[in-house]
Amino acid sequence: MEYKLIVGLEVHVQLGLKTKAFCRCRNDFGGIPNSRTCPTCLGLPGALPSVNKELINSAILAGHATNSEIRNIVKFDRKHYVYPDLPKGYQISQNDEPICENGFIFIKTYSGLKKINIVRIHMEEDSGKSLHLLESENRSYIDFNRAGAPLLEIVSSPDINSGEEAVAYLIALREIFRYLDLSECSMENGSFRCDVNVNLLINENSIEYKTPIAEIKNLNSFKSIKSAIDYEESRQKEEWILHRRTFDSIGKYTMGFDDKRGVTTLQRSKETGADYRYMKEPDLPLIKLDYAYIESIKDNRMVELPLDARIRLKKQYGLSDFDVVTLTSDKNLVKYFEETAMDSSDPKRVANWILSEVLSVLNDKEISILNFSLSPSYISELVEFIVSGKVSGKIAKEVFLEMLERNVSAAIIINEKNLEQISDESFIESIVIEVLNENPKSIELYKKGKSHAIRFMMGQIMCKASGKVNPILANEILIGKLRDV
């Protein structure tokens, strides 16, 4: 039996706008329950919605960033369903005329770049949040602070064929939205949520069958998403062997994912469009957008996106794939690197230093590069001390730690502690000759191919120079002298 895993993703991005989608309540995470509500987002009789202009602008910008076709007529619809945290009994969304269609982005895979098509991007409002605090209370609480929050839903084509590709797509999408300052895209606070659709395309005797589609919900991390896809792949394969159920006979159903057990569990059959009873939102008129206005959003707000930044950094600075992928994971990290490399003779070494020492500090302190205390010029100066041979890498790390404590430049610390290495060749040569004269046995061991003899003599050289000579230069001079002996 041959089969291919088919995965499509529905991603909800909560936009970081100041106000909600269809009212003027503040759009913030957390806070006192039900403190940011009004008659409109609570669905009280007589309250009328009005469209947040920035919701439309954000959707247009997202469309440009995902190479989508952008519709110039904005139409909203009511999506009806009954749930305690949906106060109106319907959600304002977009059904048959989404603002963006037929887009695509590229993701990085083991075999290179892969194109993932995007079916649509549409605008909608979020629901409230149900809180199940204590099982013994036998009740739930509802916080409507989130009700009416502005969302974009991005629906991919089923072009994803593994859990790894799904995570790569989500990371790429998250980076794009963060670069555009549209959202924090935090799975922890719910501003980046994903539903996963999984089934198998099976080929038996040149006949193709599709297994029922499982829509998996309640996935709260990239690890959970990959685990759920991997488990569902094996479950559907086994189910096909045992029962041979097809999409045509079963259709689509909703699954939950149990993180602790690592398994999916059946929740319900999936609603269809008819179940939602879509209708045009009667309280919101059609909005006609000028094509010039759509283009102006791109001209005024588009930034260099991660993939373009990677290509440019690799070409401009000669960085490795790993370096550019790590740097471009945060646009502020790219900015910090370029400001540091601007005054450096060795951009590669700057990148290495930022990706090792600086990122280590950021991770330990759990801060972003925006909150890092040392300016790019301080790091650039420190790297130049290493490049010029004035300090060793080991000494530079010690200087770096003191820079963090005192928030002063490397030059001040190096001068205060007299840490600058000696690179005077004649001085180093005199010490090398002295060490050779004192260690004839080490010379004999070197001639016999014993590499530890070199290390011993280098140790003697560094000891005589109080550790201040340039070790690379000293090693070169030592090897040259040994060849002449």
UniProtKB/TrEMBL annotation:
Q: How does it assemble?
A: Heterotrimer of A, B and C subunits.
InterPro entries for this protein: Asn/Gln-tRNA_amidoTrfase_suB/E, Asn/Gln-tRNA_Trfase_suB/E_cat, Asn/Gln_amidotransferase, Asn/Gln_tRNA_amidoTrase-B-like, GatB, GatB_Yqey_C_2, Gln-tRNA_amidoTrfase_suB_CS, Gln_synth/guanido_kin_cat_dom
Reaction it catalyzes: L-aspartyl-tRNA(Asn) + L-glutamine + ATP + H2O = L-asparaginyl-tRNA(Asn) + L-glutamate + ADP + phosphate + 2 H(+); L-glutamyl-tRNA(Gln) + L-glutamine + ATP + H2O = L-glutaminyl-tRNA(Gln) + L-glutamate + ADP + phosphate + H(+)
Could you say which EC number(s) this protein's record lists?
A: 6.3.5.-
Q: What does this protein do, in the record's words?
A: Allows the formation of correctly charged Asn-tRNA(Asn) or Gln-tRNA(Gln) through the transamidation of misacylated Asp-tRNA(Asn) or Glu-tRNA(Gln) in organisms which lack either or both of asparaginyl-tRNA or glutaminyl-tRNA synthetases. The reaction takes place in the presence of glutamine and ATP through an activated phospho-Asp-tRNA(Asn) or phospho-Glu-tRNA(Gln).
Question: Which Pfam families does this chain map to?
Answer: GatB_N, GatB_Yqey
Q: What name has this protein been given in UniProt?
A: Aspartyl/glutamyl-tRNA(Asn/Gln) amidotransferase subunit B
Biological process (GO) annotations held by this record are: glutaminyl-tRNAGln biosynthesis via transamidation; translation
Keywords tagged on the record? ATP-binding, Ligase, Nucleotide-binding, Protein biosynthesis
Q: Which GO terms describe its molecular function?
A: ATP binding; glutaminyl-tRNA synthase (glutamine-hydrolyzing) activity
Q: Which residues form the Asn/Gln amidotransferase domain?
A: 335-482
For the keyword tRNA processing, the answer is no
Q: Which PROSITE patterns match?
A: GATB
- Describe the family membership recorded for this protein in Swiss-Prot or TrEMBL: Belongs to the GatB/GatE family. GatB subfamily.
Encoding gene, per UniProt annotation:
gatB
**Organism whose genome encodes this protein:** Borrelia miyamotoi
